[in-house]
Design goal:
three-stranded mixed beta sheet; about 25% helix
Length: about 120
Amino acid sequence: MRLIALFALAALVGFAQDSKKDKRQAATERIVQGSVYDSNDKFVNGAVVQLKDLRSLQVRSFITQENGAYHFSGLKVDNDYQLKADFKGYTSGWKTLSVFDTRKEPVVNLKLEKKQ
């Protein structure tokens, strides 16, 4: 009986520690999302959105879904990021998501223009 009680207590302690870790992690991470539009303000499905971490220079990509939507999660709140979209000879150019933007889920929409 004591053995079962010890296992139950260990499980509760582990769950409480995981919950605290999740809350700390949530406080240091954020999500960015948005949509990609063409020059006529129509959604672009299949565009490639790149996210560059300006600290590590790591680049992640996302192919837009229905309604030109994209999202990136697990971003550090203390890093700057750049975003851009490309599609069939069109680009949005780079947009910066700064550490000074304190929103947990900022929306960054990207508009495509002809590459020069």
